[in-house]
Amino acid sequence: MKQLSAEKNKKWKLIELLNKTADYLSEKEFDDARLNAELLLGHALGLSRVDLYTNYDRPLIAEELDLCRALLKRRMAHEPLQYILGETEFYSLPFKVTRDVLIPRPETELLVEKVIEQCSAHDADQDDIQIVDVGTGSGNIAIAIAKNIENATVTAVDVSRDALMIAYGNAQAHEVNVKFKELDALKPWPAEYSKTFDIVVSNPPYIGFSEYENLPPEIKKYEPKSSLLSGNDGLDFYRKFANILPTLLKQNGTAFFEIGERQASSVKNIYADCGFADIRVYDDMAGKNRVVKMQWNRNG
Questions:
Q1: What is the CATH code of the structural domain delimited by 2-77?
Q2: Which among 249, 245, 231, 233 has a CA at the least distance from the CA of 273?
Q3: Where do the CATH 1.10.8 domains begin and end in the chain?
Q4: CB-based contacts of 138: which residues, under 8 Å, 6+ apart?
Q5: What is the rounded CA–CA span in Å between residue 106 and residue 144?
Q6: CA 193 distance to own-chain centroid
Q7: Which residue in 45, 57, 273, 283 is deepest, having the highest Cβ count within 10 Å?
Q8: Hey, which residues does 87 pair with through a beta bridge?
């Protein structure tokens, strides 16, 4: 930053600023420094990554330089690139994100894949599959499911009104019909949702206190704490929701949760004790436990 500011009166060409920005981020040990530089400058200048190179010799005016420097300053403060750009990709779809919502992660795509598999294998002939996404955030899970399962009616709930506004905007952008509801998922749900859902899916908070304190600044300083932290051991949500889940699922309904990589046994035990059966664990692309699936077979 100081180097760029010191050369404030220099007449910059696009490729020079791009190279300088990438080198600076690399010196400060940011991962994918070149990609970061391309995306930051592209966002500031309204250019695609390809356009940056086809216009490499273009001189930059003072206002453009100021905007590029402002975005670089935000990145140097470890603000996530997704928040700076205002969007990210999930399940090959673009999603608007702000600091009101958790940034969707690639590993969460496994959660969507397993729901789609369930619907294809067991519910393909069903006219209307009722699915609820608990703690929807940006709406990425609910919208990806609605995009890929034609016979699904998807409801998405969140305790945050600001998050729901982001999710609603994303649903409109993708032209999917998702029903949104503001409620605290860990308190008794309205009677209208009793025994309503064929599938409950959630990427809940699952980080414990000690793990949270050691998170990188990109996460700890900027992403919503309530979407990450779940008590001393990271299991508070699963414990509390275990009493709610049976009230939501139909007979033979299925639940899917994202979990932390060391939580599979604990989550399985919590829900087995509540009467859930056929509990399975699935690994993500990195070979880490990531998704738990379970079935509710009891009446009442």
A1: 1.10.8
A2: 245
A3: 2-77
A4: 90, 95, 96, 97, 101, 102, 104, 163, 166, 167, 170
A5: 13
A6: 25
A7: 45
A8: 96
Render each residue's pLDDT in the chain as its tens digit; 300 residues.
555 554 556 789 999 999 999 999 999 999 999 999 999 999 999 999 999 999 999 999 999 999 999 999 999 999 999 999 999 999 999 999 999 999 999 999 999 999 999 998 876 677 899 999 999 999 999 999 999 999 999 999 999 999 999 999 999 999 999 999 999 999 999 999 999 999 999 999 999 999 999 999 999 999 999 999 999 999 999 999 999 999 999 999 999 999 999 999 999 999 999 999 999 999 999 999 999 999 998 765
Q: Are strands 289-296 and 249-258 parallel, antiparallel or unpaired?
A: antiparallel
Class of domain 90-296: alpha beta
Whole-number Å distance between alpha carbons of 158 and 250? 21
Helix, strand, or coil here: 130? strand
